[in-house]
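Form 7-S
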Amino acid sequence: MISIVGTIGGDQQLVLKRKFDPSLVKRDDEAIKKKNEKIKYDMEEKNKKDIEEKLKLETALKQKKVLVNMDEVDQQTELEHIDETVKQYIQKIVDDYQGDNILSKNIKDNILEYDICIEYDLTDSHLSNINEYRQSLVDNYLAGC
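Output:
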């Protein structure tokens, strides 16, 4: 024992010292390496066991029979069929629509809710001067579409 450092929370701290011996250092290093290898091996084994258990659980869940409500399946199939029929009908109407100054026609399908966007370019027909137009003329044009 070299010295007593002091007390922390009622416990005394002691400083111990031993002579430097390379064989002791080598032995301590080997012991530390063995301990680290054992910890690493144990962790790898635990991970392997965890993976095996997870695979067993997944296999069991796949093999487990699940009840399927066929009424819901039929309803979903019928809804998809109706949606496709309506979408085709709307697409035909939009494709057949002809008008001046149409830039693009788009339909967004949200299962029996459709957003139809027809984009017009009224620059040539409704611009009076370089940067002037009348909103009332544009509104009248779009109201007639």
